[in-house]
Design a protein that fits this description.
With 288 residues, the chain is an alpha+beta fold. It has one domain: Jelly Rolls. The strands form two sheets. Strands 1, 3, 4, 6, 11, 12, 13 and 15 form an eight-stranded antiparallel beta sheet that branches. Strands 2-5-14-7-8-9-10-16 form an eight-stranded antiparallel beta sheet. Strand 11 and strand 12 form a beta hairpin. The protein starts with a helix and ends in a 21-residue tail after the last strand. Keywords: Apoplast, Cell wall, Cell wall biogenesis/degradation, Disulfide bond, Glycoprotein, Glycosidase, Glycosyltransferase, Hydrolase, Secreted, Signal, Transferase. Belongs to the glycosyl hydrolase 16 family. Its EC number is 2.4.1.207.
């Protein structure tokens, strides 16, 4: 028995060292995918620009399976109606998984709307939207997605705003089988983004600029060969054992309830008309 335990421990150490934890900045982790004539990528900083000719975007070089993805973002100031700044994780293909932060532009003086969503196996329609409780154009704020085998948590400045828990054993799909890249983009969405497309982009205010810094992807780098269990073992053996990655504590629940009670403006789980009364099954499960 003693020899078996030693061999098992050696196996775990060997396994852990085959899985790389990525913790790098923008210039090391990302590259510009379109709108290169607009974007600036240097060191800790990424700047995306949108004008009438084009927007711009970037994505990570690697895919990840579980971890924490964070960046500080300073959104487009002034009259940004019609523009969308996106920051999200996604796999590829028709059955893709995706975890979204999207920031919907607004007319001057109106609050930004934060649009969150989750896709599992190509199925989205899980939107939750919030007004921000601060001016996101005046300074940088931290936007983080924690993703582990049991739950996904969206944070703004360390305050949780949304949780999606894993009920896969009850037939509810959960994103844990596909590696996802991190994407950022600034683009024109005036056909839907502001008041359902009623307010169009005012190009006299262009160029529109969104700024990012302090990108961190502390995650399990995934190449298709690493299994879910291997990444989960990696999480258990490393810094993911922090309470931040477990069920939210009392204080965090209080913060989240404060946001949801005061700033939530849409929750798909309350939209009975949209789903004709046939609500998604996770809406009947505890998410906090």
């Amino acid at each position: 028995m003693e020899n078996f335990e030693k061999l098992f421990i050696l196996f775990l150490f060997a396994l852990i060292h085959t899985i790389v934890l990525v913790d790098a900045n923008f210039s090391k982790s990302m590259y510009i995918t379109w709108g290169a004539q607009h974007a600036i990528l240097q060191g800790e900083d990424l700047q995306l620009v949108l004008d009438k000719t084009s927007g711009s975007a970037a994505e990570t070089k690697k895919r990840f399976l579980f971890g924490t993805i964070e960046s500080r973002i300073k959104l487009v100031p002034g009259n940004s109606a019609g523009t969308v700044t996106a920051y999200y994780l996604s796999s590829i293909g028709s059955q893709h998984d995706e975890l979204d932060f999207e920031f919907l532009g607004n007319s001057s003086g109106q609050p930004y709307i934060v649009h969150t969503n989750i896709y599992t196996q190509g199925n989205g329609s899980r939107e939750q939207q919030f007004y921000l409780w601060f001016d996101p154009t005046a300074d940088f704020h931290n936007y983080t997605i924690h993703w582990n085998p049991t739950e996904i948590v969206w944070y703004i400045d360390s305050i949780p705003i949304r949780v999606f828990r894993n009920y896969e054993n009850e037939g509810i799909a959960y994103p844990n089988k596909q590696g996802m890249k991190v994407y950022t983009s600034l683009w024109n969405a005036d056909n839907w983004a502001t008041r359902g497309g009623l307010v169009k982009t005012n190009w006299t205010n262009a160029p529109f600029v969104a700024k990012f810094n302090h990108f961190r992807a502390r995650a399990c780098k995934w190449n298709g060969a690493i299994s879910i269990n291997q990444c989960a073992l990696n999480i258990a053996a490393n810094w993911w054992t922090s309470p931040t990655y477990k069920q939210l504590g009392y204080a965090q629940l209080g913060q989240m309830n404060w946001v949801r009670n005061n700033y939530m403006i849409y929750d798909y789980c309350r939209d009975t008309k949209r789903f004709n009364g046939q609500m998604p099954p996770e809406c009947f499960k505890a998410q906090f």
